[in-house]
């Protein structure tokens, strides 16, 4: 695949948010770059050969899609591609790539941090510190505890490896069952989710959002967990039926939840999750470490060079599955 205009340069549209992408100089030398916000996306797409969705949470593309009259390639600066999985894109010949690989280790570290926060009761220590209250308590070991990681892509694998390294017993849940996985050991199929989570101390959701995974964590899934289990969501908020999660936390069906993603973002100020002492909330930042924006641009810039040279692109998404297949 090679895109060249009469000027010898392809037209690249870049959808930005409040901040412009850093380190775009090399790309700007080899393309006619149109920076735009959501309001101007349709105009910027006319005659464009490629689209870089640096503002990866934007939902502006479906309504602007009618103007994509020459688009060959779309790159989204995220691991999850659900914001662009609308029918017209799926049915088109446009190649879709993502930022797979950027967030693996940082999200794994976040998950380990939340596991430790629960086991060592860090939130209570902080509340007691604020109140200047000295209250001795006993905490839990994580060595020997069990975790099920639901989602066996690169991020899930990084989580499994790190949790194993500190002594947890880890298994996975994905599309295909197997007993000899190098990172998970045993992988169950997600259609047997209730069985997978029944004995887990920690259930980690990192599956991509697809028609099959939407609302997979509902009242039945939480009821299948142990009352002492903690739920960690670093995948997508729409994996969870939020009202069912709130009910499970209130009733003691599960012991706690660490949530980085929500079905409505920002989480409304009056949402009951904010005031639950057994809930840890972060604002969709589990993978966002110092330098992450440059890494995102670096992945795009590498693919841009490949695209210009007609070479195979990295991280090509199967638009019917909604993610990059394993081994790609």
TrEMBL record:
<dbReference type="InterPro" id="IPR036291">
    <property type="entry name" value="NAD(P)-bd_dom_sf"/>
</dbReference>
<dbReference type="GO" id="GO:0016616">
    <property type="term" value="F:oxidoreductase activity, acting on the CH-OH group of donors, NAD or NADP as acceptor"/>
</dbReference>
<keyword id="KW-0560">Oxidoreductase</keyword>
<dbReference type="InterPro" id="IPR029753">
    <property type="entry name" value="D-isomer_DH_CS"/>
</dbReference>
<keyword id="KW-0520">NAD</keyword>
<dbReference type="Pfam" id="PF02826">
    <property type="entry name" value="2-Hacid_dh_C"/>
</dbReference>
<protein>
    <submittedName>
        <fullName>Phosphoglycerate dehydrogenase-like enzyme</fullName>
    </submittedName>
</protein>
<dbReference type="InterPro" id="IPR006140">
    <property type="entry name" value="D-isomer_DH_NAD-bd"/>
</dbReference>
<dbReference type="GO" id="GO:0051287">
    <property type="term" value="F:NAD binding"/>
</dbReference>
<feature type="domain" description="D-isomer specific 2-hydroxyacid dehydrogenase NAD-binding">
    <location>
        <begin position="113"/>
        <end position="286"/>
    </location>
</feature>
């Amino acid at each position: 695949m090679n895109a060249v205009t009469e000027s010898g340069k392809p037209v690249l549209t870049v959808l930005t948010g409040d901040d412009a992408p850093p380190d775009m100089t090399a790309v700007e030398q080899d393309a006619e770059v149109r920076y735009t916000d959501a309001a101007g996306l349709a105009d910027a797409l006319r005659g464009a050969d490629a689209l870089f969705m640096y503002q990866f949470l934007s939902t502006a593309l479906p309504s602007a899609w009618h103007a994509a009259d020459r688009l060959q390639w779309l790159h989204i600066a995220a691991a999850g591609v659900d914001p662009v999985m609308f029918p017209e894109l799926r049915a088109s010949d446009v190649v879709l790539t993502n930022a797979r690989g950027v967030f693996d280790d940082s999200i794994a570290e976040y998950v380990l941090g939340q596991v430790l926060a629960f086991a060592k009761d860090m939130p209570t220590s902080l509340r007691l510190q604020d109140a200047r209250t000295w209250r001795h308590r006993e905490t839990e070991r994580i060595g020997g505890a069990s975790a099920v990681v639901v989602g066996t892509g690169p991020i899930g694998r990084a989580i499994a490896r790190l949790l194993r390294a500190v002594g947890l017993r880890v298994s996975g849940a994905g599309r295909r069952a197997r007993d000899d996985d190098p990172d998970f050991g045993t992988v169950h199929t997600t259609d047997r989710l209730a069985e997978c989570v029944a004995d887990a101390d920690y259930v980690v959701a990192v599956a991509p959002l697809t028609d099959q995974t939407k609302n997979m964590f509902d009242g039945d899934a939480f009821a299948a967990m142990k009352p002492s289990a903690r739920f960690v969501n670093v995948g997508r908020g729409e994996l969870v039926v939020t009202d069912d999660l709130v009910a499970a936390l209130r009733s003691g069906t599960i012991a706690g939840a660490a949530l980085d993603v929500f079905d409505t973002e920002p989480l409304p100020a009056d949402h009951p999750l904010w005031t639950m002492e057994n809930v840890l909330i972060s604002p969709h930042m589990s993978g966002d470490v110092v330098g992450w924006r440059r890494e995102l641009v670096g992945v795009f810039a590498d693919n841009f060079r490949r695209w210009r040279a007609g070479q195979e692109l990295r991280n090509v998404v199967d638009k019917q599955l909604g993610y990059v297949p394993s081994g790609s």
